[in-house]
Amino acid sequence: MAGTKIDGLEVAKNIKQIVSETVKQLTEQGISPCLATILVGDNPASQTYVRNKHKACEEVGIITQDHQPSADITQEKLNELIDSLNEDASVHGILLQLPLPRELNEFEATSRILPEKDVDGLTPYNVGLLSIGSGILKPCTPSGIIEMLDYYKIPLEGKNVVIINRSNLVGKPLYHLLLQKNSTVTTCHSRTLNLKEICQNSDIIITGVGDRDRFTLTSDMIKENAVVIDVATTHHNGKLKGDSDFNEIISKASYASPVPGGVGPMTVAMLLKNTTTAAALCKGIDIKS
Question: Is 288's pLDDT higher than 80?
Fold first, then answer.
């Protein structure tokens, strides 16, 4: 019997409805949530991501500012742009679209964003808060994965969870979020030995390699009734794919997320949620994070 599809579009729709109501409540109190995006250069994929984020903001009533400096901007000028947005009281969230051109220092740029406006949860301050269980503005993709699991009432306490990703954007913050849910977490990566065996002993597998030429999560790597969350996005044989083939995995898993339509929509939804949280906190209003 096939398992249940984890529908990220459905969960994201639910989050957006909550955000829309929050925006209305904040507006009634004189706060107009505003997200400023910075897209350096003309990377087509990044342009699409930013465009989708602006569209999602419009759907829930969040105001946006769109900053698109050219790829030859200096680090100094980029820092000045970030500083100006930090100082702008009408801007509640700042999103620096990554990756940046190689000439620019991503760590320096993201670290410059005020923690209270860091809707990506990437500043050292917010990373530190997350690691001790006190995070408020949390990285969007990892927090979106937790929302998906909660929505489908998939238990995490005491479960063996493997994350095949150790990036600052996904794997590392997700590790901390799962620990806070009392999961037993194993982080795997390109140097991990016996990956197949580790996966076969896991209740939940969250995979985010994104290179089908190097890695594919196949059904023989998961145990019966495991949960599989596919975070990866890559083009393979002319189609957008994850690390696994959903139709193969779902025949063995109890729950699985597809690509597209799984984690992707949740990343945007959680960005909207973080923006309203930041807007509320700037006025000392505590809303559910």
Answer: no
The class that CATH gives domain 140-264 is alpha beta
Q: From the candidates 16, 118, 120, 243, which is the catalytic residue?
A: 120
- pLDDT digits 0-9 by tens, 239-269: 899 999 999 999 999 999 999 999 999 999 9
pLDDT tens for residues 31-61? 999 999 999 999 998 999 999 999 999 999 9
Alpha-carbon separation of residue 197 from 160, 189, 194 (angstroms): 13, 14, 5
Catalytic residue among 16, 53, 138, 273: 53
Q: Is the pLDDT of residue 289 over 50?
A: no
Separation of alpha carbons 121 and 278, rounded Å:
11
* Residue pointed to by tokens 């465009």: 51
- Domain residue limits, the chain: 30-114, 140-264
Pull the structure tokens for residue 135.
């995070």
Q: Which CATH architecture fits 30-114?
A: 3-Layer(aba) Sandwich (3.40)
CA distance 212 to 78: 35
Residue-wise burial string across 34-61, b where 16 or more C-beta atoms lie within 10 A, e elsewhere: bbbbbbbbebeebeebbeebbebbeebb
For 194: left if phi > 0, alpha if psi spans -120 to 50, otherwise beta; the answer is: left
| 227-230 and 255-256 beta bridge pairing | parallel
Peptide bond before residue 33 is cis, with ω within 30 degrees of 0: no
Q: Strands 239-241, 234-236: parallel, antiparallel or unpaired by DSSP?
A: antiparallel
Of 97, 118, 138, 241, which is the active-site residue? 97
Tell me the whole-structure pTM to 2 decimals. 0.95
Q: Which two tokens stand for residue 2?
A: 């096939």
97 catalytic, yes or no? yes
| Rounded distance between C-alpha atoms, residue 287 and residue 289, angstroms | 6
